[in-house]
Write a structure and sequence with these properties.
The chain has 109 residues and is mostly helical. It has a domain of 75 residues: Orthogonal Bundle (Arc Repressor Mutant, subunit A), CATH 1.10.10. 58% of the residues lie in helices and 9% in strands. The protein contains five helices and three strands. Strands 1-3-2 form a three-stranded antiparallel sheet. Strand 2 and strand 3 form a beta hairpin. The longest helix is centred in the N-terminal third of the chain and has 24 residues. The chain is elongated and about 75 Å long. It starts with 8 loop residues before the first helix and ends with a helix. 6% of the residues are buried. This is Helix-turn-helix domain-containing protein.
Length: 109
């Protein structure tokens, strides 16, 4: 690194000022962003019951009947948030207009 002269000071201060502004902006963005847990997608059975609004015993019975996506390690059950949301979406019942559109698309091929 070369030594700076007095004439270099205005340029150096301008550069430093821009960098400090960028750092402040980034810090504000980080501060306003909600923290995500390290394992944001991984849930226990209690957290899963709150998400899908079913009781813990109901979830246990669905796990026994292989009706709900689950991972098991030893005696513990773990659920992925994305899997549970996809499972909920897969049970969606189509409206009459959606069914009508599908039929029309099949016949128009």
């Amino acid at each position: 690194m070369k030594p700076f002269t007095f004439e270099d000071l205005p340029n150096i201060l301008g550069t430093l000022s821009l960098r400090v502004e960028n750092i402040e902006r980034l810090l504000k963005e980080i501060k306003n962003k909600p923290p995500e847990p390290e394992d944001a997608g991984l849930m226990t059975i209690i957290e899963a019951s709150k998400l899908i609004r079913l009781s813990v015993p109901t979830i246990y019975s669905k796990v026994c009947r292989n009706e709900i996506p689950v991972s098991k390690q030893g005696k513990r059950l773990y659920f992925l948030r994305s899997d549970l949301l996809e499972w909920i979406k897969s049970g969606r019942i189509k409206t009459v207009s959606e069914i009508r559109q599908e039929v029309e698309q099949r016949f128009n091929r």
